[in-house]
Design a protein that fits this description.
The chain is an all-alpha fold. It folds into two domains: 383 residues, no CATH class; 91 residues, no CATH class. It contains 20 helices and no strands. It starts with a helix and ends with a helix. The mean pLDDT is 79.
Length: 511
């Protein structure tokens, strides 16, 4: 990366970490109020309907990714007319998506009783609750296309500041509604209003920062040949997008149908923590996506290899550390947070964390693939992985319960989508034998196991009750895991380059 790319990446990463970390703290407070005011069935409804709406987002079909990739080249060369044309296409597509999701969602709302093993006994109307979830989902598409110009201009930090500022206001308002009125309807209405508010604020910022978007070029259509190329990419992304959505969104639906909403509600506290941590990490790391797109426009093979090695090391270090801590500390944390009644088995915790780990370790290969425009190659592997995940989840849910649902997701992703994507990036973009990537991935997973066992052994020595005990255990876990990682990677060339890059960035800031 160039110095400017490094600075932009650092700014986006810092903004992502700070903003999402703050939102995470508020989320825990909000969830604490939620479980005190409402029953676990409401948590189950939240999880179920969120998953259903995740599945409905199939309508997006990868249009955002395809158009963002198309913007990298004109953004780097300063071709404003082309950017205007692409944004016009983006706007039209997202308006159509919002309409389609509305129609499909309203139709689906009349068949909700078939998606749960037993309808919850709550005073609110089950269908109206779903409509409020649907309204929030549709609001997420309105004006959202304007975020793309900030992302390709390597200014994701602006979007993050706006998103997390509104998110903080949303959580505070939701807590006030729950504490003051106990209204689940009000809770959901605040959520939808803030989703729309985020997009409005981003839109206003873009209008002010990029006045040229309102020029005549904004009313010109993209040439038919370029539209055809973009929609070829969209077609390639469609299968993989649908499969990914089915894979990510099916777990709670399977659980709700086979095991009931209460199971969804109990596990939702764990998924809140894990998904919040994953969101912070993904949100932080995705700050480099715009810079990677800029870099991959005309980078050399050797530079690509070097950057990939650095990115893989950074991502592994972060996810190994966080996943180790989650595995050893999550049950004690939930006990302190909401009580033993909301705890679950250690095996289920491990399976949930492994889903986050596998997803996180996919970041380097996924980022390289999409910023190099390789969309067509993953459509069938993602599709096969999604179908296999649903089938295996149902089979294992019937045989071994909750653990089976989550471990099915881990197995299918590891054996199908992650393996194929790693092969594509290693063989096509890095021109290295795939067995090296497979061996590294297996060794990395084994090292995660070593870190977990070492931390568990250390925590037996420093076991202590209460919040102070949990903090002490967290400090010990972080120290033990970092010590192991430093011992393994401390003398590697990639580690040396990462350290040097960090020193250079800090030195520039000091001046």
């Amino acid at each position: 990366m160039s110095d400017s790319r490094t600075r932009n990446s650092a700014r986006n990463v810092a903004a992502g970490f700070a903003c999402q970390g703050f939102a995470l703290l508020l989320s825990f407070v909000s969830r604490s109020v939620f479980v005190q005011v409402l029953s676990s069935e409401y948590l189950g409804i939240n999880g179920l309907f969120s998953n259903i709406l995740t599945v409905l987002s199939f309508a997006e079909l990868g249009i955002g990714e395809a158009l963002s990739f198309a913007m990298y080249q004109p953004a780097k060369t300063g071709d404003r007319a082309k950017l205007c044309q692409l944004l016009r296409l983006y706007r039209t597509a997202y308006r159509g998506i919002a309409l389609l999701v509305t129609v499909v969602g309203v139709t689906l709302s009349f068949f909700l009783d078939y998606l749960v093993a037993e309808k919850p006994e709550i005073p609110e109307n089950f269908q109206l609750i779903f409509w409020l979830f649907l309204f929030n989902n549709v609001c997420s598409y309105l004006l959202a296309y304007k975020q793309s110009i900030l992302l390709v201009d390597q200014k994701k930090y602006v979007v993050l500041y706006i998103q997390q500022g509104v998110k903080a206001a949303q959580l505070l308002l939701q807590m006030a509604v729950l504490a003051g009125f106990g209204s689940y309807y009000g809770f959901l209405l605040v959520q939808a209003a803030c989703t729309l508010g985020t997009n409005v604020l981003v839109s206003l910022y873009v209008k002010k920062a990029y006045p040229w978007l309102r020029e005549d070029a904004a009313r010109e259509k993209l040439p038919p040949a370029e539209q055809a190329r973009i929609f070829r990419d969209v077609k390639a992304l469609a299968l993989s997008k649908i499969a990914g959505i089915v894979s990510n969104g099916s777990d709670n639906i399977v659980i709700a149908k086979i095991l009931g909403l209460t199971s969804v509600g109990i596990v939702s506290n764990y998924t809140l923590v894990i998904n919040s941590v994953s969101s912070i990490l993904w949100g932080t790391l995705s700050g480099i996506t715009g810079s990677m797109g800029n870099f991959n426009v005309n980078s050399s093979l050797e530079k690509r290899r070097a950057i990939f090695e650095e990115l893989y090391l950074i991502v592994y270090w972060i996810f190994c550390l966080c996943c180790t801590c989650l595995i050893v500390l999550l049950n004690p944390f939930v006990e302190l947070w909401v009580g033993t009644a909301y705890q679950t088995q250690t095996s289920i915790v491990v399976a949930l964390v492994l889903i986050a780990y596998v997803s996180g370790m996919n970041f380097p290969v996924y980022t390289f693939r999409v910023t190099c425009g390789l969309f067509d190659e993953m459509k069938y592997p993602y599709f096969l992985s999604g179908i296999a995940n649903v089938a295996l989840s149902v089979v294992l849910a019937l045989k071994i319960g909750l653990f089976g649902v989550y471990i099915a997701t881990v197995i299918t992703r590891l054996l199908i989508s992650e393996t194929v994507e790693g092969y594509i990036v290693y063989s096509r973009l890095l021109q290295k034998p795939f067995w090296r990537y497979a061996a590294r991935y297996a060794a990395s997973l084994a090292l995660l196991g070593v870190c977990v066992l070492a931390c568990r052994a250390a925590l037996r020595v420093v076991a202590a009750p209460g919040v102070a005990g949990l903090v002490l255990q967290a400090v010990v876990s972080v120290c033990v895991c970092n010590a192991i990682l430093l011992l393994v990677f401390g003398k590697s060339a990639a580690f040396a380059r990462v350290v040097q890059r960090g020193k250079s960035l800090l030195g520039r800031r000091a001046r």
